[in-house]
Design brief:
alpha+beta, eight-stranded mixed sheet, 145 residues, 3 helices
Length: 145
């Protein structure tokens, strides 16, 4: 599998997600897709509402970690395709920041693979989010499973 960057500057557009799905219509061995979309929440923390998250990463390390996740996923699950995209930069509340797209012959594999892959991303990839509040203050986001 070739190495590629998984990062998209800013929010992940719905058009990009739709085009990704459409590209797989020609792959006739696929029987199931599963998509996970991570969206920025307008959490309230200590009386302040999150309006955006500013994502940063150690890109080289993060891409290496994503490559390792890709290899583990293909080794553990009977997948035909897998794509991961994560935002960098500012993503406003309500916008998409993570897009995981998994394809296989049968549905059971895609459900199990998607949850596992998202958990690996949360625990193994050096991506950092600075939650920006409506009053322009910020705090570093803590990942949770």
């Amino acid at each position: 599998m070739g190495k590629k960057t998984v990062f998209i500057e800013g929010p992940i557009p719905s058009e990009f997600i739709g085009q990704s799905i459409a590209k797989h219509q020609s792959k006739m061995t696929i029987g199931a897709h599963n998509i996970f979309l991570g969206q920025v929440r307008a959490d309230e923390i200590d009386g302040n509402t999150v309006v955006a998250i500013d994502y940063t990463a150690y890109e080289e390390m993060a891409n290496e970690a994503m490559d390792a996740i890709r290899e583990r996923a293909f080794a553990q699950f009977d997948l035909i395709c897998m794509h991961i995209y994560h935002s960098l930069g500012v993503v406003k509340a309500g916008e998409i920041c993570l897009f995981v797209f998994v394809s296989a012959t049968r549905r059971k594999q895609v459900y199990e693979a998607t949850e596992t892959i998202v958990n690996w991303i949360k625990t193994d990839v050096p991506i950092f989010g600075k939650e920006i509040f409506e009053n322009s203050t910020f705090t570093w986001k803590k990942n949770s499973l």
